[in-house]
Specification:
Strand order of the largest sheet: 1-2
Oligomer: single chain
Radius of gyration: 25 Å
Helix content: 40-55%
């Protein structure tokens, strides 16, 4: 799909960022907004946001939220932490490392599923894909939690502040060898990624060692700036070791005005980041990533000129306040273009966590069962090639940068069967943990529709919940056949009403449940179910 600009506008492409009318969103706009902002909206959220104006909706989605609380000790024995209490400040213990990592991943997946209507969780995953660390490389759960907490606390906050905090974060220092970076033996790993992936981006190669926006010498000088940072395993914190720091002058290329960073000790890294962020190219780079995350993977000339560059101006002028960009982008005419509805393949976490949210799966009453089911859903996402906490490398998941496929990479010969099996099991046989079953209650969901006894209303309102676009007449006919094969529509009315008049009758309940399962499974088998 190529996004075309509308003709006849004297302001060229400026209309693309014009705000939509500040009237109630209605069902389709609300659903599109929530599909992109959340890991799958529930029916009540769609209905509620349909009544909001875009201003009201974004006030809610961008509001600051309370800290959700840390992950808890649930799995196995931990000699230093009682069951149900957090391990994040406890002494490091290699014997329980795997259990704490499992706890962290379960907790994180649980937050994706149980999220309030807020952009925070979607932004946490965005920043994780941007400022990458890998769980099994860092391999210390307490550091990984500290990293996650920074992403969460600053999810819609200041990009530069986040870059500063993560530069000396325990997990990042360990992941990209910052702890090994000393005056006598400089290590360039973090410095290189700071330029190439975390801030300004790697521009076209001008000549060997010159990437347009930085040079190899810039990387070397930045590595010298970053020398001396260590991690204390006893206090679980980073610290500056002056004796390991290179105190000489660091001179950068003419792209940075031959800027010199003199001996500033533990504050030199902040000057380095300010130097990089003084270039508007840094704002352009991060806006492109935000656009690909929330809108569409293709950025053509029209989108670059009409969306990316104006938003980069806003980000730069607002001193890298991310919320200011999101408010404009997510209220724009362009974002709500009907051609963009259902134009993006769900990533595996959107697929798994989104299914759990849309189907309102019950993850159990007790803490241990909840964590077990959350861990199960984490594993199911990882089988679909999105391992929460562990992108494949420092560049993140290829679906967000690898041209020309981009998000189409999520669907392949290995992942499509995994998606199909997940849908089948969550609707039929279910998954078991701690003696409890994780399976959709389709009768409960049917009862939330406005007229569950009417086959057409039932099917279309399930489609409103599960699909990003309206059903075609042919699709509705196919789904009706799945619900009541070979029978006229009024037969479903009879079947439903017989069940409602005798809800304790197991035979009648099973018949209704089987019909609903056949219909919803057919709906989740449609290509559109993989789209947002």
């Amino acid at each position: 799909m190529i996004i075309q600009c509308r003709a006849g506008n004297d302001n060229s492409m400026n209309y693309l960022l014009d705000q939509i009318e500040n009237t109630p969103l209605g069902k389709m706009k609300a659903k599109h907004l929530l599909n992109r902002a959340l890991f799958g909206p529930r029916r009540e959220e769609i209905n509620l946001f349909s009544t909001y104006t875009i201003t009201e909706a974004l006030d809610i989605l961008l509001a600051n939220e309370e800290d959700p609380g840390p992950p808890l000790h649930v799995f196995g024995d931990d000699p230093n932490v009682p069951f149900g209490e957090t391990w994040v400040d406890a002494a490091l213990d290699g014997d329980v490392r795997a259990k704490r990592k499992k706890s962290l991943r379960s907790w994180w997946m649980g937050l994706c599923i149980d999220q309030s209507p807020s952009l925070r969780e979607k932004m946490v995953l965005f920043w994780h894909n941007h400022f990458v660390t890998e769980t099994n490389v860092v391999n210390i759960p307490a550091y990984l939690y500290q990293y996650n907490a920074i992403l969460r606390a600053h999810s819609t906050g200041n990009f530069r502040t986040m870059a500063e905090l993560l530069t000396i974060n325990t997990a990042m220092l360990r992941y990209l060898d910052g702890v090994k970076n000393t005056a006598s033996s400089p290590n360039e790993n973090y410095a290189r990624e700071l330029f190439e992936l975390f801030s300004i981006g790697k521009g076209p190669l001008i000549e060997e060692g010159n990437y347009t926006y930085y040079t190899e010498e810039d990387v070397q000088e930045a590595a010298r700036v970053l020398t001396g940072w260590k991690v204390d395993k006893d206090t679980l914190s980073s610290y500056y070791n002056d004796s390991a720091h290179d105190k000489g002058n660091k001179t950068f290329s003419d792209y940075y005005g031959n800027h010199v960073i003199s001996d500033g000790g533990e504050n030199e890294y902040k000057e380095l980041i300010s130097m990089i962020f003084a270039s508007k190219q840094t704002a352009i780079y991060i806006v492109q990533k935000l656009y690909r995350w929330f809108v569409y993977y293709q950025i053509n000339e029209e989108v670059m000129n009409g969306i990316i560059l104006p938003l980069a101006d806003i980000l730069y002028d607002q001193d890298y306040d991310v919320k200011s960009v999101l408010q404009v982008l997510l209220s724009s005419e362009h974002f709500f273009d009907p051609d963009l509805r259902g134009a993006y393949l769900k990533n595996p976490i959107e697929f798994v966590a989104g299914s759990a949210r849309r189907l309102e799966l019950d993850l159990g009453e007790d803490l241990a069962t909840q964590y077990e089911f959350q861990n199960l859903l984490y594993l199911l996402s990882s089988y679909q090639e999105m391992d929460l906490g562990s992108p494949p490398d420092v560049a993140g998941w290829p679906a967000y940068y690898l041209e020309p496929q981009f998000n189409r990479l999520w669907i392949n010969a290995a992942t499509l069967p995994q998606r199909s099996e997940f849908c089948q099991k969550i609707l039929r046989s279910g998954y078991y943990r701690n003696g409890e079953k994780l399976v959709a209650d389709l009768i409960f969901l049917a009862e939330q529709t406005s007229v569950p006894s009417d086959a057409s209303v039932l099917i279309n309102e399930f489609a409103d919940l599960l699909l990003p676009v309206e059903l075609s007449p042919e699709q509705e006919e196919e789904l009706t056949e799945a619900l009541i094969p070979g029978l006229p529509g009024f037969e479903w009315t009879l079947e439903w009403n017989e069940y409602k008049n005798d809800p304790g009758n197991e035979t009648k309940r099973n018949a209704v449940e089987q019909s609903l399962t056949n219909m919803v499974e057919a709906m989740m088998s449609l290509p559109e179910y993989h789209l947002i």
